[in-house]
Design a protein that fits this description.
302 residues, alpha+beta, Thiol Ester Dehydrase, Chain A, eleven-stranded antiparallel sheet
Length: 302
């Protein structure tokens, strides 16, 4: 008899590998200063530096690891990265070793406009080599029902032209984000993300019902974070909050702009469309460290 699923902690020692950091820098191609061994890892870049490849035998139909091990056995087919929050207690150094602790802290069934959904919240803690807490992160995953095959599909990937550098600065705090299948493939590889909606056009359109390949939620979030790294390179980030509001599809031009938020030092949004119809895809807010006021991080209790 199979035991019912229970949340449990997954603890591992991880090397902050410079190679995927270099790969992510090359992918974003934003003009920011290069990052190497001994440098502080930019906020959220642990998604690449600490990416974990699942065994091929563990993968399900959608390309993700089959549910029921670390993540709960949710029976809804669509999965999206909905957002989260990151707190930097002290910088992680590229080339160092950290301990990673991850745990599902809540599983909440809901009903939305598109039907049933389940919200799964994952908590991640990263500790430096001396046991000091360096980063805490909360991630929200949403599982939804599948949609019918979309009639207004985008062009098949083989008909697209390369976009070159995906992030392009127009002026201060105004950037463009452009994607093509190669950008999505490289990001999937950099972050060990085998989800088929990002590279398998027939699966994305015919099985999950999207109009085209789906741009990764973490890629949209990192694009916003990267503009902060370029625009304010000397200001260390203490906290980031981010939320993905609507999917962005491959080849759809998008733009990054500042937005008003009285509760944050800085707020950015990723938009597509024109003056007649605008879609807001991702929102990210950042709070910066005041020099000399970073609090001492607690040590591990394990």
């Amino acid at each position: 008899m199979t035991s019912p699923w229970q949340p449990h902690s997954v603890v591992s020692e991880e090397y902050v590998d410079p190679a995927p950091v270099v790969a992510l820098s090359a992918l974003l191609d934003s003009g920011a200063a290069p990052i190497g061994s001994g440098d502080p890892l930019p906020p959220l870049w642990h998604w690449a530096a600490l990416a974990r490849w699942p065994a091929s035998s563990a993968l399900g139909v959608d390309g993700h690891p089959r549910r029921g091990s670390f993540l709960p056995p949710v029976d809804l087919p669509r999965r999206m990265f909905a957002g989260g929050e990151l707190r930097v207690h002290q910088p992680i150094t590229v080339g160092s070793t950290v301990r990673r602790e991850a745990r599902v802290v809540s599983v909440t069934p809901k009903t939305g406009r598109t039907g049933r959904l389940v919200v799964v919240v994952v908590q991640i803690r990263l500790y430096s080599g001396d046991g000091t807490l360096a980063v805490t992160e909360r991630q929200e995953l949403i599982y939804r029902e599948a949609a019918e095959s979309h009639s207004g599909r985008s062009a098949r990937p083989e008909t697209t032209e390369p976009v070159g550098a995906p992030l392009r600065r127009q002026r201060e705090w105004e950037w463009e984000l452009r994607t093509d299948p190669t950008v999505l493939m490289r990001f999937s590889a950099a972050t060990a993300n085998p989800h088929r909606i990002h590279y398998d056009w027939p699966y994305a359109t015919e099985i999950e019902g999207y109009p085209g390949l789906v741009v990764h939620g973490p890629l949209m979030t990192l694009a916003l974070a990267e503009t902060i790294r370029v625009e304010r390179p000397q200001q260390p980030v203490e906290r980031m909050r981010h939320r993905n509001l609507a999917p962005l599809f491959c080849q759809t031009p998008a733009r990054i702009r500042r937005r008003r938020d009285p509760d944050a030092d800085l707020s950015l949004t990723l938009l597509s469309g024109d003056a007649n119809r605008t879609t807001e895809h991702t929102v990210l807010t950042a709070d910066f460290t005041v020099p000399g006021e970073r609090t001492h991080a607690p040590r591990s209790h394990l």
